Amino acid sequence: MEWEEVYEKYKLSEEEQNAIGNYINQIFLEGKTPMKNPIAIFDIGPTGSGKTALNGYALTQFENNNLVIVNNDELKPFHPKADEIAKQYPEVYIKVVNEASKHWTDDLMDKALEGNFNVLYEGTGRKIKIFEKMIEKMRQQGYRIIVRAMAVNELNCLMSMVERYEGQVQEKGWGRSVSAETFYKGYDNEMLDTIDTFEKTGMADIVEVYMRGTIPTEPKRIYSSRNREFKEARTAIIVGRERDKKSAEQYYEQKFTKRGVKPTKYPEESELLKKIAEIYDKEQGIQI
Question: Which of 155, 170, 196, 262 has its CA 20 to 30 A from that of 111?
């Protein structure tokens, strides 16, 4: 079944969509305090890089967690039929549910900006236009804008994607698997181009680059546009990914060596596991 057909089957009425959106806003904005000089943070990085941990790090920097986190993926489960769609139509789940969740995401961001709340938006950084629209509104409201990017080796990202998928299946009975092709669209050029635009056009007041830390909510900063540890953020990301290679290979040897490339319990992982093995073998000089 095409995704449009599934969408029509589960399409929410305008009344339902607005009611759920109002409920989401109530949950995410409750207890937040308006600020005279609000801060907006953009956490960007490819799937599996650890943006959730970067979000947690940001929370620790605001008294009483006074930060509204806006993440489209967190809002998708608010669709009343999300589980049913994911189980019956996993290949089109994201596209179908996103038709509603993107509306909720935009509305939550608008309400947060209107209220002068500190806000954090999480994304892969693939599409600069998404950020341009938000930043235009933020500048009008007097926001200080900080961009933080994750520098994580491709191998570590892909292994995290596999483990997250398996955890979702065990917990919910279904999981969201991202294809290698989709992953690399963001990992290779689009995210790097976005960082370049943020830094060189002055869209952001501060641009920072982080690597994973030994404690998830304590990532290691390797670059800030204020101190210029590297020539630019793009270079910092590339270097950080290379530095992360050793830990990625060690984790592969500890957790993935004996798995092989043909999972029996989670067939959706086959493509990712094959790619993971190819990357490791190439780095070790093993002929495939």
Answer: 196
Which of 250, 244, 192 lies closest to 46 in space, CA to CA? 192
Tell me how many domains the chain contains: 1
The burial class, CB within 10 Å (0-12 / 13-18 / 19+), for 59 is: middle
Reading the chain (288 residues) residue by residue, the pLDDT tens digits are: 788 999 999 999 999 999 999 999 999 999 999 999 999 999 999 999 999 999 999 999 999 999 999 999 999 999 999 999 988 888 888 889 999 999 999 999 999 999 999 999 999 988 888 899 899 999 999 999 999 999 999 999 999 999 998 888 888 877 777 889 989 988 988 999 999 999 999 999 999 999 999 888 899 999 999 987 899 999 999 999 999 999 999 999 999 987 766 555 666 788 899 899 999 998 887 654
Domain-embedded: residue 288:
no
CATH number at residue 147: 3.40.50.300
